[in-house]
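Posted in: Protein Modeling Q&A

I'm a second-year student putting together a small comparison for a lab meeting, and my supervisor asked me to include a predicted structure for DUF1996 domain-containing protein. I've never done this before, so apologies if this is the wrong subforum. The sequence is pasted below exactly as I got it from our records. If anyone can share the structure token output, I'd also love a short note on what stands out.
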Amino acid sequence: MIWSALFAFASLATAAPQFGGGGGGSGGSTGHGTSLVRFGCSQVVIERLDPLVNPGVLPSPHVHQVVGGNAFNASMASTDVSGIASCTTCNFPDDLSNYWTANLYFQARNGSYKRVPQIHNRMEDGYEGGTTVYYVSPGSGKVTAFKPGFRMLVGDTTLRTKPTGVNMKTQSCFRCYTGPNFKGDDLSPCADPKLDTETLPAGPCLGGIRSNIHFPTCWDGKNLDSPNHKDHVAYPTSGPSSFATTGTCPSSHPVKIPQVMLEIVWDTTGFNDKSEWPADGSQPFVLSNGDKTGYAQHADYVFGWKGDALQKLMDGGCFGAATCNGVKTQTAATANKCAVKDTVAEDTNGWLTELPGHGME
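Accepted answer (user: helix_wrangler)
Welcome! Here is the predicted structure, written out as tokens:
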């Protein structure tokens, strides 16, 4: 997201009572208590593993790009992940969490597939592919950081049509950049009525495609997980919050937790030759789970911050880049050294006759 939009948000938050205006921190802080933390994470592995939805299954049904700590595995016990991982691909070395999302593939007119590369986001030079992670708090003491063993899932990998009465755009959206260097990135995520869509863009995007995913912001205060990885969390009573806003939590989930948003940028510019697109003119991109609509975009989160590092960020009035007081950072070069050994022996990058795991869904 463009920095001018971030600073516009900061100005708005200062005056907005829902953001706890009037608090503040020092050095890298908003000066009014609101924390909006944005940082890059390089990919730690790309493969067919999903320890939440398909624990112990190797390989799982579809490919994910994973970022974060090197404890990622086919199975991950509900425990303190920060005590297992030894490094992370994220800007904060204390964030040993894992975040993973579906990959995007291009399907050529001849039916073959090629994975679309994920590229570093704006102002994240040096990070390899990966994801931009946001954590938002309306003010000091306003949210409760996740506990060791916490995990959650947002989205439905089986979804192919829009659910009735649901505004999907506030949960997941796609931005069609209009030119190089993130051109068209002028409004906050999912807020542009022209460039942001609930589905994958219908036409060529001259600067690539960005995916934004918002996690729920309310917790039942008891369970670190639930059988479907969703029931222990909820969106506000008014529905999914737009970026950097929080609403009233339902009585069933009264504890407000940080708003987590993931931002993924795909470089689709190498696939804009419409002579290679389907003969019927339909858009050629498909998520790794086989979805051509975009409704089945989803994201998984396993909490792994060390100690009280995340609570400090959420209470410290931190803003924008990873320059918050009291929490360590590391360079992209250091983050890029962290990796997870590929445990599924298959090609996910070359031209393929079918999507990896095709038929397992």
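A couple of things worth pointing out for your meeting: Residues 120 and 156 are 26 Å apart (CA to CA). Confidence is low (pLDDT under 50) at residues 7-32.
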